[in-house]
Write a structure and sequence with these properties.
By secondary structure, this protein is mostly helical. The protein has one domain. Helix content is 75%, strand content 0%. The protein has 12 helices and no strands. Helix 4 packs parallel to helix 7. The longest helix has 26 residues. The protein is globular, with a radius of gyration of 18 Å. The chain starts with a helix and ends in an 11-residue tail after the last helix.
């Protein structure tokens, strides 16, 4: 049990650090190009994994449209808006906004999956929104402004919630590895023309260290960490594991302090407590759909 919790905590640290990693990478690669390259290495990793496991499976024609939509919305747009937003958005604030994904997921699940939306979920949503206010406005209404980057991060959160619900719809018929592989292949193919349409100017690093960082972070964050999480989640209570996932904003704060020398403010700490508390209040008793992967 202790070993399982240790590995799950490692995954949370990796996912929380991804906000800082992304902030660093957009300094060397333009967002659409970064999205395409990252998806390329993720797909190569997944193909290698499915080949090793001899796990290649066909998808029914009736599911092709859903898988394609998942690849466009839940993979390409989700990844691109994440990097586009991190050009100007603060990584800690981004992590806090994405921490509200379970709440939106609950709302979408109530609409499309007919899951129950309770008053407790609504109360949790209000608490979490108050937390976002403290972080974005720094506790002062007169200083409230909406950075364009944060709007893109909000789109990332929305597409992530959509991805979770769509994956849930497909999971009754298709196994997770197959869904992940095909949706990422779609995302990669769709991203290629947008590199030339969205990135003006096109920015690409010539340093081997930057490329190594890009490849390593892509494989570790979206490949290895996800596999470790899925492998160890079966050994612990899902509710307890979900609480660990709410530590991501705090990890983003600490990594931002270490790697970006960004001080942690009182407003961020207070906002974090409200957001995490709101998410826990919303998802404490219900069946949790959220599985970190950004």
């Amino acid at each position: 049990m202790l070993k399982a919790y240790s590995w799950l905590t490692f995954c949370v640290m990796v996912w929380g650090s991804n906000f800082v990693f992304g902030k660093m990478l957009v300094q060397y690669f333009s967002p659409a190009l970064l999205t395409m390259l990252r998806l390329l290495f993720i797909v190569l990793f997944l193909i290698g994994l499915t080949t090793y496991k001899k796990h290649f499976k066909r998808i029914n024609k009736s599911d092709l449209l859903v898988v394609f939509s998942l690849g466009v919305i839940g993979v390409f747009i989700n990844q691109w808006s994440f990097f586009e937003g991190l050009q100007t958005a603060d990584p800690t604030t981004s992590a806090l906004i994405l921490a509200t994904t379970p709440i939106l997921t609950s709302v979408l699940a109530a609409i499309f999956l007919k899951e129950k939306l309770t008053a407790q979920m609504l109360m949790g949503s209000i608490v979490a929104i108050l937390g976002i206010y403290f972080v974005v406005a720094k506790g002062n209404l007169s200083s409230l402004h909406f950075d364009k980057g944060l709007l893109w991060i909000t789109i990332t959160m929305i597409t992530f919630a959509i991805m979770i619900v769509m994956t849930r719809l497909l999971s009754d018929r298709i196994d997770p590895l197959t869904i992940t592989l095909y949706s990422n292949v779609v995302g990669l193919i769709v991203s290629i023309p947008f590199v030339f349409l969205l990135d003006t100017p096109l920015q690409i690093s010539s340093k081997m260290s930057d490329w190594s960082f890009l490849i390593g972070s892509a494989v570790v964050v979206h490949g290895i960490a996800t596999l470790i999480w899925n492998n160890n989640i079966r050994h612990v209570d899902a509710s307890k594991a979900s609480i660990l996932s709410n530590l991501e904003p705090f990890v983003a704060m600490i990594m931002g302090l270490i790697l970006l020398y960004k001080p942690i403010t009182g407003a961020e700490i207070l906002g974090s407590l409200f957001i995490v508390g709101g998410v826990l209040l919303s998802t404490y008793q219900g069946k949790r759909l959220y599985s970190p992967s950004n």
